[in-house]
User: What shape does this take?
Amino acid sequence: MTLTSPPSPAVKGPSEVPAAFRPKLLARISGQNISLVGALVVVLVLFGALNDNYLSLSNMQVIAEAATITGLLAIVQTVVIICGGLDISVGSQAGVASVVSAMVFTSTGTNAFLGMAAAVAVGLLIGALNGLVIVYGRVNPTIATLAGLAAYKGLAQLLSDGRAQGYVLNDDIFIFLGRGKIAGLPVMVWILVVVALAVHLLLRYTDIGRNIYAIGGNDTAARLAGININKYLIFVYALIGVVAAIAGILLTARTGSGQPTSGSEGLELKAITAAALGGAALKGGKGGIGGTLLAVALLGALENGLTVQGINSFWQNVAQGALLVIAVVIQQRRSGERAVGLPG
Assistant: This one.
């Protein structure tokens, strides 16, 4: 599948913005990130003052490891939002991959590489299927992936009979992924960094990335410029499937077994919230990986702080929902769009 397209002056990616407008654009991006850094500092200082162990190195590693899976899904959620779509099924995709990785691992004589390869292959198929349904079924991405949320969750439960499958912590590779460290940092965090850097480079410095921004910004202009939007959408959703599979494999390594729902349920809300807080415009055409990672860190620090303080976990869901609403309200205000039902 060829994703390159003829160059056109009518469609401009983030690196092709006229020089006169770059300072304003950079200022807005920096302002968004500075706000997230400020909020993160406030959360760290607040919970650090309430609990002496909160800012300990061991707890910071716990926060980083817990945020890794959410971070991976938030990164690809950012890509699809930039492209003008949405994927509500990422958590269920990770659940399917987690189950497949563990079941194939145990059924092939504890071959970790086969288990991981099978999980990635399934993730690729599921992601591509979402893209095909959206493109050729002409189904709204929200509806298509909402259906996927239920269908893939059911698939994971059918494959696993509704319970955790396999045991992988007798394997050195899974142990390394789930509990190993490189240069003092958990391996899971390094995987997140590598994926984030790869996606950032893809978006900012390739024709593929520029065309993804163009499609989300104005799909009509992108089509007139010769960009094959259908292929790009299928590619983006297939990418989501692959990264969701990686997240599922890490979930298996972290918990020690394939998890059909535990650990993956609710990840879609976290991923969307992180992407929106990080500056990804839900209408498409705008966003970046740096802001998304800062938002993931903020959500992880907040969730851990509430847990350390013994606050009911239901309040974490309330906080996530509130943050998502706040992020969307800020986006709407910045866009200057007229309020629904009110005079302009």
In short: Residues 6-28 have pLDDT under 50 and may be disordered. The CA atoms of residues 120 and 246 lie 7 Å apart. The radius of gyration is 20 Å.
